[in-house]
């Protein structure tokens, strides 16, 4: 049983000659498929939320949607100003500032402030 035959091998192709080689070359030669980046949609109003989502929803129901959105807009603008001043004080460039603002938005979504 020490000897095995070639027919028992799992390899059934050739070693790069003949039709198999041409077929593989044709498959590889084509352009790569295009990928389209998809941006995630904001979670506002999606019903999902973090620990503060219930308080945000109750507040919105008490003071009304219009007034609530005005207050939320003012709070977001104030927070963005604070981030901008912080970046100025440490000498961060605009790209880093935008990254911090995006991170603040992501954290706000995660905590439920944008519920």
Automatic annotation (TrEMBL):
Descriptive protein name: Protein PROTON GRADIENT REGULATION 5, chloroplastic
Lineage summary: Eukaryota, Viridiplantae, Streptophyta, Embryophyta, Tracheophyta
InterPro entries: PGR5
PANTHER family according to UniProt: PROTEIN PROTON GRADIENT REGULATION 5, CHLOROPLASTIC
Gene this chain is encoded by: PGR5
